[in-house]
Amino acid sequence: MSPTLASAPGSCCFSGVKHTGTPVGRVEDLGGIPTYISDPPVPTQKVILFLADVWGPLFVNNKLIQDYFASCGYIVLGPDYFFGDSVPNHLPDRDRQAWIDNSRKPAIDAFPAWLDAVKGKYGRENIKYCAVGYCFGASFVMDLCSDGSVVAGALAHPAFLDESHFEKLDGPLLLSCAEEDHTFPLASRRRAEDIMVARKCTYYFQVFSGVKHGFAVRCDPAIDMQRWAKEESAKGIVSWFDRFAV
Question: Does 213 participate in catalysis according to the annotation?
Fold first, then answer.
């Protein structure tokens, strides 16, 4: 078994600050999965696959991030691979560990049909697909970056990764990281970098001090350091995708 680099979501993945704003996207069924769709101001052939954390793509924070990516010129598609059973809809006494254990397989099993439906709807030729994964969604991105499905990928405070994900990496990858992260600690981050250096991968690290795991989605915007890191993470992801989605 390949050594773990980013572990399963922990207790801090279930907390954070709910942001304010008015989402502008819509929800449609794609391949059997409810999907948040946010369209850009003008037609485009660039698509971001938004693979959400345990709060799901329909959580307001994630909707607003997807809308931001769309405003930058991308069609953004966020599959709710939790099928409505994401953290915002849990009762306080929910067994979180059992939920994590039971949620991955249905998500993984449903994803190929969703991806096929996406390509059937938006196209397979001359379309530049990118993928970003937050926490739970990171492994999906790594798989997409390993089989040529996307032109570039990005991760923010990832979970569920092992060394083999980096050993198979074939596409450009951005990693947006917190200085303090229980799921992807410093030693793991450096080990991932060592693998990518040895394999001469195309990669880029953002590492933000003063923030923790989850900052790119659920930071406290009233705290300047946290708000800045979240915004710079999103800007960096767009800039990264712009390099390759041309």
Answer: yes
